[in-house]
Amino acid sequence: TGKGGERLVPRTHTSGVQVRYAESHKPPFKIIVPGKVFRNEATDATHEAQFHQFEGLYVNKTVSMAELKGTLEKFFVDFLGPETKIRFRSSYFGFVEPGVEVDVWYKNRWLEVCGAGLVHPHVLKAAGLDPKAWKGFAFGMGVDRLVLMRYGVDDVRHLYSGDLRLINQF
């Protein structure tokens, strides 16, 4: 419950870290931070209703989709190897415009690993920034899915089982 008694719900698809940082710092800035995310979805081998993600936010006078794409491609190739196949698909996320989903070829199929896009002007304004003066890009990628791909874990639910045999492998 909020200060005025109103009911509050955790943000979905992103944590509160990026917006809190933007509200309390003057641009230009670049951050990469961990954050906890909650979603209303069924769990399976690659999905959990709550998870941690790495989030990035870059705000400067000029920011482009090319910079966002280059940043993410560089990360995934460095993290997963030079043969990594990546694709960008347009998608809707309420806090960016345009928005993209980033997929990585994994186990003979595309697996979404990241949501991203250019920060929506309304989000910049809500953070106290002039959207005519400042632009930004943002992304969020699930740590769990990165672990799946990097270490060959076959089911994300294993990461939450508390089984020390799995944990001790890392």
Secondary-structure blueprint:
Blueprint: H1 17-24, E1 29-38, E2 50-60, H2 65-80, E3 86-91, E4 96-106, E5 109-119, H3 121-126, E6 135-142, H4 143-151, H5 164-167
Antiparallel strand pairs: 1-2, 2-6, 3-4, 4-5, 5-6
General description of the model:
The protein has 170 residues and is α+β, with helices and mostly antiparallel strands. Helices cover 25% and strands 34% of the residues. It is built from 5 helices and 6 strands, in the order αββαβββαβαα. It has a 6-stranded antiparallel beta sheet with strand order 1-2-6-5-4-3. It is globular, with a radius of gyration of 17 Å. The mean pLDDT is 86.
- Point out poorly predicted stretches: none
Strand order, main sheet: write it out.
Answer: 1-2-6-5-4-3
Task: Please work out how many helical segments DSSP would assign.
Answer: 5
Specify Rg, calculated over alpha carbons: 17 Å
- Helix-strand pattern, N to C? HEEHEEEHEHH
Tell me about the biggest sheet?
6 strands, antiparallel
- β content, as a range? 25-35%
Helix content: 25-40%
Average pLDDT figure: 86
Gross morphology is globular
Category from helices, strands and their pairing:
alpha+beta
The total beta strand count reads 6
Head-to-tail CA distance between termini: 39 Å
What key attributes describe this structure?
170 residues; alpha+beta; 6-stranded antiparallel sheet; 5 helices; 34% strand; globular
